[in-house]
Structure formats: structure tokens, C-alpha cells
Amino acid sequence: MIIVYFLIGALALLVTVVLLGFVGCTPFSAADPAPDATPPPAPATPPPGSGNPPGSGTPLPDLGDYGNWVVRTNDVVAYWRLGDPATVTVLKASDPIPAGAVKTAKDSFNGYDGYHFKLNPVATPDYAHHSPKTTGEVIPGVTPGLLQVKPQDNLPCLQLTGGYVQVPWDNHLNPPSFTLEAWVSPDPTMFDTAPGAQQFFYCLVESAGPASLGQKKTGWGLYLGPQSTVAPLGPLCWQVWMGDGSKFNQVAIADTGKTQLTLTYLVLTYDGAQGLELWLYYPETESDINDLLKSSIKKPINPFTFHVNDSTSDGKGDFIIGAGSNLFPAVGTPAQRLYPFKGKIQEVALYKSVVPGYILESHFLAGGNL
């Protein structure tokens, strides 16, 4: 059984950690090196271990304190800052990608650029798929961005109310072990406060597959949504879904008492077996050490086998930021992508290994306020 629980790392950072499967393991342990808040210099080239990127060996610009930390971290695969200007082209999701269309969502590290897409507006929720209504809007270039340290390094962010970023398929975007890192500010209106109201799922990031919107069997997704897929009521919580080769499963649910719809520094790590961790830190609200040290609810999750996306027809799909696949294939295939995220997002990084806690702490110190 995989156990979901929270441990607290270094008190200087005040990070909330959701651990799944590692009983007694604290990411910020005494054995870890002390975090270094000194910003690194601009890297000359991608560091060793960065995979097989399209732009490997191309000199990198100075990305500011936070960006330099990210691209100097071992095993970084892609880094979508999502600070693209408001003038970028946003395509209609119902249209095929036009010939010659420019990839406007830039990867600052390896060249895995993506497209901005907007969904068709949907005035009524899809209650069968538990997907919300949407205005079908994508707003790049929103200021200020989400980073808190050194405003000159804080790029604009991407605001979503019905769209997403789609990065074309590549095997390197589907590592068997990984770390996903992002700054996100969910819109509080995602939660319907009416008594007994049905809640919906919202996808932050998904290694999507298959390419169509049929049954998803592989890959992983990070969602905000209700705990139950049968009676989707109550508060929204962060949760992880993974494919086992035959279906897509809700494998881990964060403590609803810790989930907040506010500015969040978020990290999801997976070690390739059953070691799954979700780190949530709320820089605008977490300051009471006594609250942070309280034990969290422990929720058992059934063991699972993770199947990454691959080149088969059941697995090959693009990498999506801001919308998801069909979580409920039994009720039919939807007309377009579901579960559009609502809020702001920035600084999305993907690594092909589990990034150590002390390094992530340095990342936060370069981007957030204590």
C-alpha cells in the first residue's frame, strides 16, 4: 500500500511535503548539504546529463537568478518559463495546426517549444466527465509574474481560463523517473462553495496519450479535483493520476487540509518505482510553524505499475500544460480536451530524475520570499 502523508523539511523553507511510499524519509534531511541562496552565473551550455536536446551545445543566455538555478540542475529536460509576450499567436484547439505555425511557448533550455491553444467556449459543465465549463481564453504576458524575488527577473506569466500549451511528442519528455516543478496560482473560483455542489477536475500538467481523446492508458497527470471520482463533492485537492498500461488511475491524493487555492511553489517527483512525492509550499500564507508541524491525514492508495508514454498507438501523445485527457472514457469521447486549468502558471520545468530536496530549496530561495 502506498501511504500519503506530509513531512516538513527544513524549517527555513517551511515546505509542506506529501510523501507516498517513503515512510520516515524527510527530503530535507540532516545529511543534505545546506542550501545555497547565492545565484549561479549564467550557464554557457546545457549541463551534463540533460538528455539529447534539439539545441544541445547552444549557448544559453543569462536567465536571471531563478532561471539559472533551473538550467544548472542535473537532468533538466525542458524549461517552459511561460513568460511569452501577450502578442504571441494563440491557435484554436478545434483547428489542425496550420502549416508554418510558430511554436510560441518557448523552452528556454532544450528547444522543446510548444503551441498555445484555446478551447472552444463551453457554457455548461460536462457533468458526465466531471469537467468544468470554460470561456476558452488563453492570456499570455500577464504581469506581474509569480516569482517574488528580484522583480527584474520576474517574467510575465500565463493566465488560463480555457486553454493550454501543447508540446509535440518526444521520447525525452516521457522519462520513467521524473521531477516536475512549477509556480502556480489557482483561481479560487474553481471551487464551487454552494452546499452540495458538484466539483470538477482541473489538469495542471499531463504527459498526454494517446494522441486522440479516447481511453488513456499510459503516462501521468497532476490534477486539482475532488477526492472521489464517483461522488465528486467536497474540497479540491492536488492528486496524481498514472497509467498502468490498461487504464488511467487516481493513485495519490494530497491532504485536503493542506491544499490551498493560492500562490503555490509545487514539485512532483517520481523515482520510477512507487516513490511518489508531492511538495506544496504556499509562500503567501505559510508562516505558522506550529501548524506546519501537525501530522497530516494518511491515506492508503493501492499499489500500481506505471507505464510511460511510448511510441505505440496507446501511448504516444503530446505534453500538455493546462488541460487533460479523458479520465472517464466509459461515458464517451469528448469533442475537445477536458479539465481546463483556471489560474496563472509560470516556470514549468521537467527533469529526468528525482531532484534532491536541498536543490529544490535553493530554487525556492531564488524565486520566493520566506
Structural features, described:
It is a single chain. The strands form two sheets. Strands 1, 2, 3, 6, 7, 9, 14, 15, 16 and 18 form a ten-stranded antiparallel beta sheet that branches. The protein is globular and about 50 Å long. With 370 residues, it is mainly beta. The protein is built from three helices and 18 strands. It has a domain at 2-185 and 258-303 and 341-367. The chain has helices at 64-71, 289-292, 357-367, and strands spanning 2-8, 16-20, 76-80, 90-92, 115-118, 138-142, 157-160, 163-167, 178-186, 202-207, 220-225, 237-243, 248-253, 264-270, 276-281, 299-301, 319-321, 343-351. Residues 36-51 have a biased composition (Pro residues). InterPro entries: ConA-like_dom_sf. This is LamG domain-containing protein.
Order of helices and strands: EEHEEEEEEEEEEEEEHEEEH
State the share of residues found in helices, binned by percent. Answer: under 10%
Radius of gyration: 19 Å
Structural class based on helices, strands and sheet pairing? mainly beta
How does the major sheet shape up?
Answer: 10 strands, antiparallel
Mean pLDDT: 79
Total number of helices: 3
Strand fraction equals 25-35%
Low confidence ranges: 1-35, 41-57, 288-300
Q: Tell me, briefly, the overall form.
A: globular
How is the quaternary structure best described?
single chain
Number of strands: 18
Distance from N terminus to C terminus (CA atoms, Å) equals 35 Å
